Amino acid sequence: MKALKTILQIGLIFVLPAFIAINPVRAQDSTITNARVVEMAKLGLDDDIIIAKVKNAKCSFQLADNDLIELKKSGVSSKVIAAMLDTTAITVAHVTIDRKPVEVHTLGQAKVGGRLGSAFTYGIKSVKEKAYLQGAHSSVIVGLSPTIELELPKDDTIDNYIVVRMDGKGDRRELEVGSMGGIVGSKSGIRAEAIHKTNSTPLGNNKFKMTVSEPLKAGEYIIYVVGSADSIKGVHGKGYDFTVE
Question: How many percent of the chain have pLDDT more than 90?
Fold first, then answer.
């Protein structure tokens, strides 16, 4: 019995490497490349099947102009190539400030301030509606004249991105997004005086360089995405926050 066990162990030493060589790790097959798409097309798989694979797997495509020409020459349909291009399209802006990457954050559910004052003044004083970001400061700290670079989704425009100053309130930063009552009635949107003028330069491929017209003061800021609010879902906007020191 002991001898048999030894023979089996020796056999595994020689057989297992050969088995692995013949059957490579399936995780490697899970990444779809240009070559894999060409292979599936040559096997005669329908476009819809190839596209489903592309949409539901990890992809690593090379899609420069020459690569697209080679795909067409290899028999890959325009429909499949379009699906491959879609996998590389970004859905939210990629933003860096002074070359530091900045993540998009959702502004928390708005709170209402000034109700007591409005009651005492019989509605003459307005009630302010504010949204907020948790935390006293951003993790991204920049100088007074930051350089902002944005890569936008294909249907987006640089006009949808504005630099806005936020109010520091202890453990969070607030942004006024509307007011109710008062002499002028209800208003929605960010106060004009909180918005800083910027200049933008196209860099190609829907990439832009944005600079502020005047140096910013030390404090808390956000690159607010216009049109990102959805009051029904309790979302009061999205943006890319930063702290100026």
Answer: 58
